[in-house]
Each structure stands twice: as structure tokens, then as C-alpha cells.
TrEMBL record, chain A:
Entry-linked PANTHER family: INTEGRAL MEMBRANE TRANSPORT PROTEIN (PTHR36833:SF1), SLR0610 PROTEIN-RELATED (PTHR36833)
Stretches that traverse the bilayer: 38-63, 75-96, 134-155, 161-183, 204-228, 240-261
Claim: Transmembrane helix is one of the keywords in the record: yes
Name recorded for this polypeptide: ABC-2 family transporter protein
Swiss-Prot/TrEMBL keywords: Membrane, Transmembrane, Transmembrane helix
The keyword Plastid appears for this protein: no
Species for this entry: Glycomyces luteolus
UniProtKB/TrEMBL annotation, chain B:
Protein name per the record: ABC-2 family transporter protein
Keyword list, A-Z: Membrane, Transmembrane, Transmembrane helix
InterPro entries: ABC-2_transporter-like
UniProt keyword Membrane, yes or no: yes
Length: 273, 262
């Protein structure tokens, strides 16, 4: 595999990015041909947001706040988490195929092509639920933003938060899917676990949880930088300096994903060997 | 139950216990949700009560939710979904076994394999967190009886979800939507008692409520014996109703199966 890898290192960034966008655009053209698939999946993506909104509405009808966080601030938390998940599903959903591609030997084809394997696999599918997740997630974020009284001057910070959240989410899911290069399973169980942990803990203020959860989510698996830290800064619950950590976590997560994938490709021995 | 059902259930059972990491993860998934739930509700309830649940009762509620979700997530719904997505369903149609019946046997066989892990996890949770005890020995017995219906109900809901794969190319987003519906309308995310009247009505009109609220209500004595028996009857009706609804939908969707374009 070493020869194949050395070929890909020489691929210019512009060429690689061109291939990525063309693959993604081809998928978008193909999904439009199957409207039932598109609508069912987009509705499925919207379900989580609708229920999350209902959960918060019911909760705040019974209690005034959680750790000083109000209804609209919590909506921003869930909205940003959903936007991050939606961006991941739209732009890099193919990473979930890594496990089955490794088992079936499908990675062979990707290695022989003159483009980075990680981009080829990542752009091999579009999660159609992303349309629902992105639309309602963004709506929830904006509704929360206005309701929480966050000023227009913070919009650039919000934009940075969205881009960083999308990058961290995508990179962490991709890195965990790449674990399947070693464990040889079609199911990306570690990536599932990550999504599950986020769904359980990252839609609530960190102050609710024991110190161990806070430390892990901030410094070990930096999921808190996807939504909790940016929203806490925007709403004045955390010092603005914490915001520096958001792009840093994004760069670190992307480097981690690229590194794990590269190591995985070195360990890859095709099917049947 | 015919020998074919037992044979399929046994195969699914053996397949499930062969992958020990799946056991571990099914307990981890449920265990994490339990810990997160305990942290949040401990914070919210404190020394008071919300929706008629004090801290002891809420602990019992969450532990029951842990048990039911651990069981419900253990079924082999991905195997069913992949049969449709990969086109294997076309071969299943040529076999002299009904597709739904065969998948039910496999699903319940797979769920059975997770019973020891779910019980072990529940015993540990009870010993560590010391939740409220059952309202009476009869309530405890009726709770166990109501929990048995989780098996056909979980299959019925998963089977309806995987039928979507006839018109979609993936199961991932569908599964998340289904899990969200179960989590919310079962009362696992937030107790049904806290919801406004119309939403409570909607929740009780759906089958998801029997995954947490029904067994927890019987266990904690929030319904009397007659109420408990009524809820169990509704569970049984849903178990049958879901099978019938799925058959009706199947009849339409199976027409969409094409093999290599022919």
C-alpha cells in the first residue's frame, strides 16, 4: 500500500477538492431523481429537532431554568448540535461506509485512484436526513438566538461557531469510523457511541454533569466545543477566551481524523488476506 | 410456535452471543442514558418533586427505562434493514416462510440474547442507586408481565421502520428518527406526566408509551390493579395491531422490489 499512498501525497489540494465537490454534486443530482427517498429521509432528520423542541418546551413549562440557562439558550444548544450533525451528513456521510468498504475490499478501488482515499470515501454518500437536520436546526438556532437576546454584532462569532462545529463533528465521526480499519466490523459502533453521548449530554449545560464529564468533553473528546462552549460564550455563561478553543479544536480534530485514516490505510490488507 | 420459528430465533440468539462487544455496547448505550438522566433529574428535582415524581421514584423510573431501552436496542433491526437494502429480500420472497414471521423470530431471538446483560445492568443499577421499591408484590409481578410485551412491541416498531428501506437507500437516518420517537413518547426523555394535556393524549394514543411509562406507572403504583391490567391489554392490542399494520404496508411496498432492473 505504500506506493499507492505516495502517489496520493502528490495530489494537489485543488485537484483533490475538485474531485470531492464533483462527487458530491453527482450525488445531489442522483438523489433528486428519487423524491420519495429524499422526502422520507429529510422528514426523519426533522423528527429529532421537532422532538427536541418539544422536550425543551415541556421542560421549561415545569421549571424556570437549568443551571441559569433559559429556554432560548437551550434551544441554541440543540440547534447548533443539529446543524453540526446535518453538515456532517451532507458533506461527509460516506465515512460511515468505511467499515463495510474495509470488509468487502472496496478500499482497493479507492487506493488506485489519484485522489485522497478519505475524500473519496467521505463523498461516497449523502445523508438525506441532513436536509431536515440543517433546516430545522438552523431555525432552532436562530429562534433561540433572537429569544436569548444575543445581538447582531455576534453574528461573525456565530458563523465561526457553525463552521467549527461542522468541522469538529465531521472529523470526530470520521476518525471513529476509521477505527473499523482495525476492528473489522460493518457497524461504526464507536461513532454511534459518540452520537449517543452527544445526544445524552451535549444538549444540556455542562454544569449539570460531574467534573469527569466536563473534563472529557472539553479536553479529551472535544465535543463540548461543537455547541456547548460557543453557545455558553454567546450567552455570557463562559468567558469569551474559551472561544479560542473552538477553531483550535476544529484543527486538532481534522488533523486527528486525517492521521487515523492514514494509519488505517497502512493497516489495511484488503479482503481475504 | 412452529419449529421453524424456534430454529430462526435460535440462530439469531447464537449469532448475537457470538459478538460479545455488541452486548457490551448495548449496556453502554443504555448505561450512559441512565447516568445522564440521573444527573439531570437529580439536579432538577433536588428534595422536591416534579410531575408527582420525587427523587426515589424518579430513580426507579429511569432504571426501568434503562432496562426497556437496553432490551429494545438489542434487536437485529440492521440485519432486517440490510436484507431490503441489499436486495436479499428478493430471495426471501422465494422461500416458503413468511418474511415478517421469519424476521420476528430472528428479532426476538436476538433480543433474548441481551436479557442476561440487561438484567445484570439493572441489578447493578438498583444496588448502586437504591431506587424506590414496587408499590406492592402484585404491582411488581404485573410490571414484569408488562415488560414481556416489550419484545413484540419493539419488533413491531422496528419492522415498520425498516419497511422504509423499500423507498430509501439507507437506514441510518430512519433509525435515528425512530429512536427519537421512542425516547420522547415513551417518556424516557421527559416523563409524560409533565407534558400538556393534548401531548399526553397523543403519547397515550401511540405504542411508544409502553416502553417506559406503562411499566414504571404499574411499578410505582401510579395506576391501580384494574388500570394496570387495562394498560397491559392495550400493550397486547398494539403488539397485534403493529403486525397487522405492517402487513398492510408490506403488501404495497413489496411491489417496488425489482431484481437487477427486471
Amino acid at each position: 500500500m505504500a506506493d499507492a499512498l505516495s502517489i496520493k501525497r502528490s495530489v494537489p489540494v485543488r485537484h483533490a477538492s475538485g474531485i470531492y465537490w464533483r462527487a458530491l454534486a453527482a450525488h445531489i443530482r442522483s438523489v433528486i431523481e428519487y423524491p420519495a427517498d429524499l422526502w422520507i429521509m429529510a422528514s426523519a432528520g426533522a423528527v429529532w429537532n421537532v422532538l427536541q423542541f418539544a422536550f425543551l418546551a415541556v421542560l421549561f413549562a415545569n421549571i424556570p431554568n437549568i443551571e441559569g440557562w433559559g429556554f432560548h439558550e437551550m434551544l441554541m444548544l440543540s440547534g447548533l448540535l443539529s446543524v453540526a450533525g446535518g453538515a456532517n451528513a451532507l458533506c461527509f456521510d460516506g465515512a460511515w461506509n468505511t467499515g463495510s468498504m474495509v470488509i468487502k475490499g472496496d478500499i482497493d478501488y479507492r487506493i488506485t485512484r489519484p485522489a485522497p482515499v478519505i475524500l473519496q470515501v467521505g463523498s461516497s454518500h449523502i445523508g438525506l436526513q441532513s436536509f431536515g437536520e440543517l433546516a430545522l436546526g438552523f431555525a432552532m438556532l436562530v429562534y433561540g438566538w433572537i429569544g436569548a437576546g444575543v445581538g447582531m454584532a455576534w453574528i461573525p462569532v456565530g458563523a465561526l461557531a457553525i463552521v467549527s462545529a461542522a468541522l469538529i463533528q465531521t472529523a470526530l465521526v470520521t476518525a471513529l469510523c476509521a477505527v473499523n480499519f482495525w476492528i473489522k466490523s460493518p457497524m461504526s459502533i464507536f461513532a454511534f457511541l459518540l452520537i449517543q453521548l452527544q445526544g445524552g449530554a451535549m444538549k444540556l449545560p455542562l454544569g449539570v454533569f460531574p467534573a469527569a464529564v466536563r473534563i472529557v468533553s472539553l479536553f479529551i473528546v472535544p465535543v463540548a466545543f461543537i455547541n456547548v462552549v460557543p453557545v455558553a460564550v454567546l450567552t455570557g455563561h463562559m468567558n469569551a477566551w474559551w472561544l479560542v478553543g473552538t477553531p483550535v479544536a476544529a484543527v486538532a480534530a481534522v488533523a486527528l481524523a486525517a492521521g487515523v485514516y492514514r494509519l488505517g490505510l497502512r493497516a489495511y490488507d484488503s479482503a481475504g488476506h | 410456535m412452529a419449529s421453524i420459528d424456534i430454529a430462526l430465533a435460535t440462530i439469531a440468539f447464537k449469532r448475537k452471543i457470538a459478538y460479545k462487544t455488541t452486548w457490551l455496547f448495548s449496556v453502554l448505550f443504555g448505561g450512559w442514558a441512565l447516568l445522564a438522566g440521573l444527573a439531570v433529574w437529580n439536579h432538577l428535582i433536588g428534595d422536591g418533586e416534579i410531575g408527582g415524581y420525587d427523587w426515589e421514584a424518579m430513580k426507579a423510573y429511569l432504571v426501568i427505562g434503562f432496562l426497556t431501552t437496553t432490551l429494545a436496542w438489542a434487536g437485529a433491526e440492521w440485519d432486517m434493514a440490510n436484507r431490503i437494502l441489499d436486495g436479499l429480500v428478493a430471495i426471501d420472497l422465494t422461500k416458503p416462510v413468511d418474511f415478517q414471521r421469519a424476521r420476528a423470530a430472528e428479532y426476538i431471538g436476538g433480543m433474548t440474547a441481551s436479557v442476561p446483560a440487561a438484567i445484570l445492568g439493572t441489578v447493578i443499577a438498583v444496588l448502586v442507586f437504591r431506587p424506590a421499591g414496587p408499590a406492592s408484590p402484585l404491582a411488581a409481578a404485573l410490571t414484569v408481565f408488562s415488560l414481556l410485551f416489550i419484545f413484540p412491541l419493539a419488533f413491531g416498531i422496528s419492522y415498520l421502520a425498516i419497511l422504509c428501506c423499500f423507498v430509501t437507500q439507507r437506514f441510518l437516518g430512519i433509525q435515528w428518527a425512530k429512536d427519537s420517537l421512542v425516547a420522547f413518547f415513551s417518556g424516557m426523555m421527559i416523563p409524560i406526566a409533565l407534558m400538556p394535556g393534548w401531548l399526553q393524549g397523543l403519547a397515550w394514543a401511540m405504542p411508544f408509551v409502553h416502553f417506559t411509562t406503562t411499566p414504571a406507572s404499574i411499578y410505582l403504583g401510579r395506576v391501580d390493579t384494574a388500570g394496570a391490567l387495562g394498560l397491559i391489554a392495550v400493550e397486547a392490542a398494539w403488539a397485534v395491531g403493529l403486525l397487522v399494520i405492517a402487513r398492510l404496508i408490506w403488501r404495497q411496498l413489496v411491489k417496488k422490489v425489482t431484481v437487477h432492473g427486471g
